[in-house]
Each structure stands twice: as structure tokens, then as C-alpha cells.
Amino acid sequence: MVPVPNVTRADVVAAARNPLAFIAARWTPDPRTVQRAALAALVMSVVIVVTGGAVRLTGSGLGCPTWPKCTDDSLTTTSAMGFHGAIEFGNRMLTYVLCAAVGWAIIAARSQKPWRRGLTRLGWAQFWIVMSNAVLGGIVVLVGLNPYTVAAHFLLSSALIAVAALMWQRSREGDAEPKPLVGKAVQQLVWFLVTASVLLIAVGTVVTGAGPHAGDSKEVDRIPIDWETVAKLHAVLAWIVVTLTFALWFVLKAVDAPKGPLDRTRDLFLILLSQGVIGYVQYFTNLPEALVALHMLGSCLVWIGVLRVLLSLRERPEVVADLPGPSLEQSLPTRA
Length: 336
Prior knowledge:
- With 336 residues, the protein is mostly helical.
- The chain has helices at 9-17, 19-26, 31-57, 82-111, 117-142, 147-171, 184-210, 227-254, 259-284, 289-311, 328-331, and strands at residues 179-180, 314-315.
- A two-stranded antiparallel sheet has the order 1-2.
């Protein structure tokens, strides 16, 4: 058995002053461990969106009527609050699971050798977005599920997914300067795709804010516009994203682009087709809760797919340290 080293007073002081540096000095994770930690943070950022949608779709948005406590007298849900209280409080508890996943990603990135500061900063960016969104979520409850705050809550979650996806991608790359794999025209087309996708997500939050699923059985304010009209605009934007994706795939094939961008574009196209089918079925069946939840999951996957296409347009190899070459005297031929 390996003896456990004694913890000295100096170790305790060092751990208290800078726990991340203390752990990094004693643990070097495998690169795959860092990648898995980043992926876990990304998965949890999607899970928290889907479970947040479940809170709204089950009418449990005010299951815990206040914040940060569940009630004025209890930090947790009570039996008297029933199903809705359990759903809302359970979603709040998942925030701690998300924080744990993000914390693991930060620790793994900080402990990797050599230390990749950029990767660690992406982990910390996720942490601060989670904290900001937790506060915003509390405000959503305190203002009675105001649809504009609900929309902002979802958009901030989309920002979290973007940063988590970027960290996952960067954990599988090196830190050398990025090298473009496609020309400027293709890059501009992808940025049009990204812009259209952002608009698609933003309009989707308006559909949610004006639609029938208010998030609670009580009277909740809605955005005062016809949700069916906005839903049609949402569908138009979805078709624009699909068209841009197909055009991108066609252009990539025409210019004989590398396999990476082609595969990511193909994946995005398949996700979009599935999402489109779900969207039309839920529209013509009066937005059943199960399909709306599936559509929210699809929205997250579409956003991740778009980001993966964008990030596949360049490669970042490992930084290779310059090795000292032979000296001039060593390179000269010797005389007999």
C-alpha cells in the first residue's frame, strides 16, 4: 500500500490561499480526463435547460413561490406544496450538479500540464454565467414568471452552452495559432449561418413568451402578440438556417474541403431536419408538453451543431517547443 503523506500546517495554509494551485501541484490529469470534464459541463448545461423547460411545461414555475428559499419559512420544498414544489425545487438542486460539473472542468483544466490558461478561463466563464443565471432565475420567480425575464433566462443558458461547447472543443486542440481550413467566402457563409441561428433562438423565446405554456397554473402575463404569427416567423428563420446549412455543405463539397467541416455540416443538417419535423408536429397538435420539451432539447443540439461547424473551420495543433540544434563546432567536420 502507498503511504498517505502527512499534511503539514504549510499544506493547509497553501490549500486555503489557493486551492486550485494546491491541487494542480499534486495532480496531473490525463488529457482525456480534461476532455471528459469539459464534456460533462456541456452535457449538464443542456440538462439544466431541458429540466427548466419541464418546470414550465408542468406548470411548476411558482412551485417554490419565493427565492432563494422555497417558501418564506422553509429552504426546501414541503409535502404541502405537492408535485409542483418538488419539480421546481428539484430543478434548483440541479444547479448544484451543474456547478459541480463546471468546477470539475475548472480543476482539471488548471491541473493539466502544461497549464493552459485559456482553457481555465473558459471554465471560469461558465461558472460566472451559471451564477448570473441562478440570480436571474430567482428574479424570474420573484416577478411572477414575467415572460421577458424568462426569455433572458433561456438566452443566458444558450450563452452557457456556447462557452461550454467552446471549452470542449479547445480541450481537444492544441494552443498553436489557428490555421483556417477554408477560404474567406466559406467563413462568411458560416457567420451568416451563426447569425441566423441566433435570431432563430431569440424568436423562439418570443414564441415561448407569447404561447400557451405560461409556466404556472395561475394567471401569468404573456407577451402581448399573436404567438401563431411569431411561430410562423420562427419557421421561416428555421428554413433559412436549413437552406444556409445545405448551401454550406454544397460549397464545401465543391471546394473539396477537409473532412471535419463536411462531417460537422452533415451532422447539423440531420439535426435540423429532425428539429423541423418536431416543430411542425407540435404546431399542428396544439403544442403538447412532451413535444415542446423535445423541441427544447433539439434547440440546444442545433445551437451546439452550429458552433461545431464554426469551430471546425480551423485547426489548432499542439505547440511544439523549439529544440536546441547542434552547435557550430559540432556541425563542422573533424580532421584526422
